[in-house]
Amino acid sequence: MAGPVPPPPLAQFAGSPTRRFYTGGKLDRALGIDDLRARTHRRMPRFALEYLEAGSEDEATLAREREAFGEWRFLPRTLVDVSERTPARPILDRPAPMPVIIAPTGLNGVFQEKADTALAIGAARAGVPFVQSTMSNDTIEQVAAVAGLRHWFQLYVFGPDHIWQALVDRAAAAGCEALVLTSNSQVFGNREWDARTRASETRPSLATIANAAGHPRWLVTTLGHGLPSFVNVIGFVPKDHHGFFQSAFWIREQMPKSLSWDTVAKVRARWPGKFLLKGILNPEDVKLALAAGVDGLVLSSHGGRQMDWAVAPLDILPRARDIVGDRMTLMLSGGIRRGTDVLKAIALGADAVMAGRAPLYGLCAGGADGVERALAILHKELCDAMGLLGISRLDQLGPHLLEPMRAL
Ligand SMILES: Cc1cc2nc3c(=O)[nH]c(=O)nc-3n(C[C@H](O)[C@H](O)[C@H](O)COP(=O)(O)O)c2cc1C
To answer: Is the pTM of this model over 0.90?
Structure first.
């Protein structure tokens, strides 16, 4: 199957009438994240879409992330006064208008120039944190300069220790509030659809080049200043590997397959702020994390891009909450497209969620304004769904308001 996994079948009328998402440029006419996604698909060249959408191998993990949400239904209460309601909820002990964070995504420079700065501006306007990836194409300092931003940094460990130490120190000096260590990506997931856009490791295919040439606006706004560079780490890359693809593959090869809880302890000891581990999907690892002194966990399959046929974060969320109790912050990342997804995650034990593709669709549809629009859509959907469910505050949520659709 080429391209993205389609959204789960909802109430459609077998093709009649023909329905279309809004793909125009008036962002306030984008009613749902799917409108922003449809505009993204109109605007971006195919290789950028494959990078954005692809999962690994058969994309079974990717599909499961959405399916898992479909297996829970609400038990809405009625005749409850919901005239004053808010999805506000603290994130890492600081107030936030909703429990949503922009997840780290690398290489956003293929979508537009200064993409991470745009994501950060959208996040700051919405009052939610933004996690900048190690593989960002904007410098840590450029993003840190965005006024009012809750700036977090995501760390990939690669090469000798001095590299991650320098990155951690730089993130601390830039005032980052939290460090997110990604633990599940030392072996690179087999993303065939992404790889098929290249003729070799270092060369796009002719079809990719021809398709990109058919997107002149993207060419000007994205490649107008040359290919994006991994600016925060390029200084550690040997000069003969500074090319775009060469540097990406070189870094990938330097990621130690021996990453362990010892590394976690070393990073913990060096980082002065809040420290989260991202990429956990097994309850045994949740238990080990408790002993490792981390402040929180992000249950995640990397957006279905790493181990195929894995469970979805939502599948293990209730068990993970049972294990950690109130001793640790628990977050989920994977499959968030609607306010109701956020509600289900919170009801099943998450303190907050990290959304990856949803804000990226906003970015591709309309830069920082599009990111802000994506977050506003999630906020509005959350408020509306809370009212429909009969709650006024998120602490009223719980499994008692959900019904599993299969034996769990
Ligand atoms: C294009 C793309 C790039 C990503 N890059 C990173 C990364 O650099 N670091 C990381 O920890 N996770 C990365 N992820 C995983 C996201 O942080 C997040 O967990 C995932 O996208 C969640 O699923 P969702 O897209 O359905 O919200 C990436 C995901 C995507 C889609």
So the answer is: yes
